Amino acid sequence: MREQTIMASSVDEVEIQKHNDLMDSWWSLDGALGVLLLFNRVRIPFMAEELVSSGKKLTANSLKGKKVLEVGCGGGIFTEEFAKLGAEVTGVDPSPLLIALAKEHSKVDERVAANKPTYLNTTIEDHSKQFPNHYDAVVASEVVEHVANIDVFLESCVAALKPGGKMFITSPNRTRLAQFFAMVMGALTVIPMHLMTYSKFRKLDEISAILKRNNCRVDKVKGLFYLPFMNKVFSNL
Ligand SMILES: C[S@@+](CC[C@H](N)C(=O)[O-])C[C@H]1O[C@@H](n2cnc3c(N)ncnc32)[C@H](O)[C@@H]1O
């Protein structure tokens, strides 16, 4: 069983193509992925504080010395923010087009250009074999609902973590409420209906069970609520 898991790929090419199709509007606040820019306002301070526990205002040095891997980085919306906070950040994505976009975009903001992320067009399966036990933190934000095999995906993410490192996962819950807001209301605004597949949404206990099988303890669970028409995010982070 374990061998089968290791042999399988986490990548679903149809999902990669769906994201490639959004390349031109990736960084647009009004585009289909503009919501990721909104998410940054809550996910970045939360994760950064979890990593350094300083209680202080975040600065360009807050994450200095921290090696962080973002898996499924796309065009770099999350990755760039951690670079601005001083992390040594690597972004991997199976899409060569999105990695090219991320590299190009890392020249735009001088704070990012001064601490450029390393962007690699690879899978987490391959990357974790090359860099086992390497990162202080691994981030998989809005990705697990797109992978072909979540067991392989999470097992590989954990393999890239240093012992005692932290893993951050964000993903829509498999509830009818999340389906209604993310998919139905989303489709009435800018998010293409086919971008997400309800049956691929994961329940918290499913993700927790896989993490536990990989010797991880779930520390914190937080909620985030996106209202497409108002383009607002509410959270208890
Ligand atoms: C919704 S985007 C999220 C981008 C980024 N994580 C963020 O939050 O700003 C999903 C990304 O996951 C990538 N992806 C899909 N399947 C993947 C897999 N099996 N392994 C790694 N990345 C994957 C896609 O290419 C796309 O860039």
Walk me through what this model shows.
The chain has 237 residues and is of the alpha/beta class. The chain has a single domain, classed as Rossmann fold. The protein is 41% helix and 17% strand. It is built from ten helices and seven strands. Strands 3-2-1-4-5 form a five-stranded parallel beta sheet. The protein has a two-stranded antiparallel sheet with strand order 6-7. Helix 3 runs parallel beside helix 4 and helix 7 runs parallel beside helix 8. The N and C termini lie far apart (37 Å). 37% of the residues are buried. The N terminus is likely disordered. It binds S-adenosylmethionine. S-adenosylmethionine (SAM) binds next to helix 2 and helix 4. This is 3-demethylubiquinol 3-O-methyltransferase. InterPro entries: SAM-dependent_MTases_sf, UbiG_MeTrfase. One of its GO terms (molecular function) is polyprenyldihydroxybenzoate methyltransferase activity.
Provide a concise account of the structure shown.
The protein has 237 residues and is of the alpha/beta class. It has ten helices and seven strands.
